[in-house]
Design goal:
By secondary structure, the protein is α/β, with parallel strands linked by helices. It is built from 11 helices and 7 strands. It has a 7-stranded mixed beta sheet with strand order 1-3-2-4-5-6-7, with helices on both faces.
């Protein structure tokens, strides 16, 4: 199988460390378009779409494989191996891709030198038994998935402003809504279930590379408590809180993300 075609891989060449960007649920590699120009000519940059997202090969979509985050982690590993990546490889993931990147790093400890985790959340469901605040009650997430079945466009138009923390006319809201609406509903439902109902808290302590945790100050999908949880449980982590509302600083406030990545790479 041609992995580079399957995952719609694009490589921007550069002499420095390789950056591998991984998009969040309902999104595509184009969500990084405001970040990659800052590193053009400095770093090799790899962008891809998970199978079922963006311009990936939908013929390769397997409901069983993509029913868990392990399937998406295998996509990430496949892309890195197809490009024979080695040396200093920096993973840059958004939202659920932070958990996917951690799973890949656990499976292949030599794959990444460092991880940049933007808006991570290893478990979106609140767990009162241990005081964990993931942001959502299980029944609320189930209601969101039920809405996908009942009214897919309505679901997309509801979720986009929640994720962006903007009204419906905001630029990030409109871009997210368009991305959600253009994603195959079957693939989107599988990714949504894997995203919102996975619990990767037990995996966090197994991650060995140094991690930069980029937390949004006001984020419905990843409360501040999640960033603090990750800082406490990752072996090597730096927590930086971005003064941003919403879940997509790489789209709404890219200069903050670029500056944080650049500083982390230079000092790691």
């Amino acid at each position: 199988m041609d992995i580079l075609k399957r995952n719609n891989v694009h490589v921007l060449e550069g002499p420095g460390a390789t950056f591998v960007y991984a998009h969040g649920f309902g999104c595509s590699q184009h969500m990084w378009d405001r970040v990659t120009p800052a590193f053009a000519g400095e770093h090799r940059q790899v962008l891809f779409d998970y199978v079922g997202s963006g311009q990936s090969d939908m013929a390769a979509f397997d409901p069983e494989r993509y029913s868990s985050l392990d399937g998406y982690a295998q996509d990430l590993i496949d892309v890195c191996e197809a490009l024979d990546l080695s040396g200093e490889v920096v993973f840059v993931g958004h939202s659920v891709s932070c958990s996917i990147g951690m799973l890949a790093a656990i499976a292949k400890p030599a794959l990444f030198s460092t991880l940049v985790l933007l808006g991570p959340n290893p478990c979106f469901v609140n767990d009162a038994s241990v005081g964990y605040v993931g942001g959502f009650a299980r029944e609320d997430l189930q209601g969101l998935l039920d809405l996908m079945d009942q009214n897919y466009i309505g679901w997309a138009n509801y979720l986009a402003p929640v994720v962006a923390s903007q009204d419906a006319s905001g630029a990030v809201t409109r871009e997210l809504s368009a991305s959600f609406c253009s994603t195959d509903p079957v693939a989107a439902k599988a990714f949504a279930q894997a995203t919102f109902f996975s619990d990767n808290r037990a995996d966090v302590e197994k991650v060995s590379p140094a991690c930069l945790v980029l937390q949004h100050r006001q984020d419905t999908l990843a409360p501040l408590a999640v960033g603090e949880y990750l800082q406490a449980h990752l072996q090597k982590s730096t927590l930086k809180v971005l003064d941003v509302s919403g879940h997509c600083a790489h789209m709404s406030d890219p200069a903050l993300v670029i500056g944080a990545i650049r500083n982390f790479i230079q000092t790691a």
